Amino acid sequence: MFTVRKVVDDLYWVGGNDHRLELFENIHPIPKGVSYNSYVLLDEKTAVFDTVDWSVAREYLDNIKGVLDGRDLDYLVINHMEPDHAASIEEVLLRYPEAIVVSTERSFMMMSQFGFHIDLEKRLEVKEGDSLSLGKHNLVFVEAPMVHWPEAMVTFDATNGVLFSADAFGSFGALDGKLFADEVNFDRDWIDDARRYYTNIVGKYGPFVQDLLGKAATIDIKVICPLHGPIWREDLGYFLEKYDRWSKYVPEEKGVMIVYASMYGNTEQAAQALASKLCERGMTNVEVFDVSNTHVSYLISEAFRLSHIVLASVTYNLNIYPVMYNFLHEMKLLSVQNRTVGILENGSWAPTSGGLMEEFIDEELKLVDVLGEQVSISSSLKDTDDSDLDRMADALIESIEKTEI
């Protein structure tokens, strides 16, 4: 028994879904699971595109066997060497020892680093623009370094317009039978996971994604087959536009995310009061997050989505609250830019977090403006703080109105 789905003529999905894994790359929560996608192409010669994580290898190998239906495997194409896609290389080769492994020079180096021993006569090293004919299907290889590892490439089937896109255009979330993006309400149920996947996995490498998008614009892509998440066969422009915007660090929407660090609820109260004032002024695209119990991957995703950010932090040991500092550090690592940030600080005897956050933004972040109207609270919110919150809300609205999306 095997579980496969036909993608287009001659091409089959043979991957698997994982609902047991709690943390992707042992850091990002994936409450909806994740898929590991691999594909088999049947022609005069046969090819498998990438493998899967060890957790679903047994099902995966059965799937390959079922699709090949007694045929040999001629080529194993490795677009990306990260272990969640490459872990089963040797298991495939044990069952199909005559198969030729197709990949880049750097990828073969990484195979050795991971302990995969591929005989030289079983290697086909390819580079940008090289092609491989399987019969009626002609594969063209395109280098995609730093999307998101340096060895990555993508493979384009020039015959049917299928792009095997490696980790590009992927998403968190298990497929559970629904293979295509048009079989789900993607904008309702998937876009948040797709954005969180991109921003935290690939977000740092926007210029490299722009390079890949430039290459993609020169070929006639009809289907996008990523290594995680659903396959795109309709409305490709929707997702390509998202990637273009994310990789340019341009906000998707006008709105405000308020991220607060509160020890006893007083800074949280101020954050909620500001959210109410913004909504009263007609800006209801407001999201409020407790930095202490919201995983930073969700915060980064929202920072890419919305145009404005308010950082509301208590002072802790004369410094920024540690988890707030961690969020700022992640913003730096993942190149969050082209945003406007408002600052709200709290402290009982020496409020310093506001100045320190502004200093971090000025010195460590690129193209991020700090709103002139800042708020400083002593211990708890008082009636006298109301006018300061009003001024910050007014300044945010004014800035939002001037923002071009």
Helices and strands in order:
Elements (H helix, E strand, L loop, with lengths): L4 E4 L2 E3 L2 E3 L4 E2 L3 E2 L4 E3 L2 E4 L3 E4 L7 H12 L6 E3 L5 H4 L2 H7 L4 E4 L1 H9 L9 E3 L5 E3 L4 E6 L9 E5 L4 E3 L21 H4 L1 H12 L3 H11 L6 E3 L10 H12 L5 E9 L4 H15 L5 E5 L5 H10 E11 L2 E2 L1 H12 L5 E9 L5 H12 L3 E3 L4 E4 L7 H17 L3
Parallel strand pairs: 8-9, 9-10, 10-11, 15-16, 17-18, 17-19, 19-21, 21-22, 21-23
Antiparallel strand pairs: 1-2, 2-7, 3-6, 4-5, 7-8, 12-13, 13-14, 14-15, 19-20
Helix pairs in contact: 6-10, 7-8, 9-13, 10-11
Estimate the strand proportion. Answer: 15-25%
The counted number of beta strands is 23
Helix content: 25-40%
The mean pLDDT is 97
**Uncertain stretches:** none
Separate helix tally: 13
- Radius of gyration, rounded? 24 Å
Class inferred from helices and paired strands? alpha/beta
Outline type: elongated
| First-to-last CA distance | 50 Å
**Main pleated sheet:** 7 strands, mixed
Describe, in plain words, how this protein is organized in 3D.
This protein has 405 residues and is of the alpha/beta class. Helix content is 34%, strand content 24%. It is built from 13 helices and 23 strands. The strands form 5 sheets. A 7-stranded mixed β-sheet has the order 1-2-7-8-9-10-11. Strands 17, 18, 19, 20, 21, 22 and 23 form a 7-stranded mixed β-sheet that branches. It is elongated and about 80 Å long.
